[in-house]
Give the backbone structure.
Amino acid sequence: MDFSNQQRAEILVQALPYIRHYAGQIVVVKYGGNAMINDQLKQQVMEDIVLLRLIGVRVVLCHGGGPEITETMRRMGKESVFIDGLRVTDQETVDIVQMVLAGKINKTLVSLLNVKGGSAVGLSGMDGHLITAEQKDERLGYVGRVTKVEVKPILDLLEKGYIPVVSTLGCDRAGHVYNINGDTAAAAIAGALGAKRLIMMTDIAGILRDREDPATLIPRVTVAEARALFDSGVISGGMIPKVECCLDAIEKGVQKVIIMDGRVPHAILMELLTDEGAGTMVAP
């Protein structure tokens, strides 16, 4: 679609109140799923993040990489096993997770952000004691539960104008490395930072009253309403742990959490810089 210069100017003016609202604020973006697999969408997400940083929003990008971990394990002849949606992680698997998350995926995202005009620095939860963890369940092996978040490495980078890109690994005081669910880690980091927004990018439109019908999207829920949706079965299956992470983030001090469809081009900008928004907002 072609816009005249006047139309472009009007769009920018309409975004001005939102730019003013978020300037200087911390926004944590949890990135993964299909938005990460599709190269064109990945480019657009990186453009969104760089644009937000340029207008003064302090963006922290937390990423997972489940599909790529699964594919790497398959190529190495190792089968992925899941319990309650979490990957069973023995010593060999945690080495693969570390290689894929902290290595390939993290540095690819850092490079893309830099190419788009940003200044990004990659971190893992193992750097600077960022994420301290302990074993979540003996059945899962090296799958971690977050026990502490040290935000100083992230704040130092934000202060210098960088975009921190965090892979969701953690370690304990003995140096054992743990694979941590991306949503869980992002919620813990956003809470520790007191972020204004946590944006959870997923592969559905948001919370749906009928999971088969995107038209039944619920645009906004309170914490109490979300708990009622658990009880009624509207929130079920894989959406349960995601919404639980949203509630956990709010309890830790995040002002609002957005569950949005990462397959929609420029969904982050639609949410933060327009009246319409995107996905489901979870609020206190």
Q: What stands out?
A: The radius of gyration is 18 Å. The domain at 23-283 is CATH 3.40.1160.10 (Carbamate kinase). Residues 260 and 279 are 4 Å apart (CA to CA). The mean pLDDT is 90.
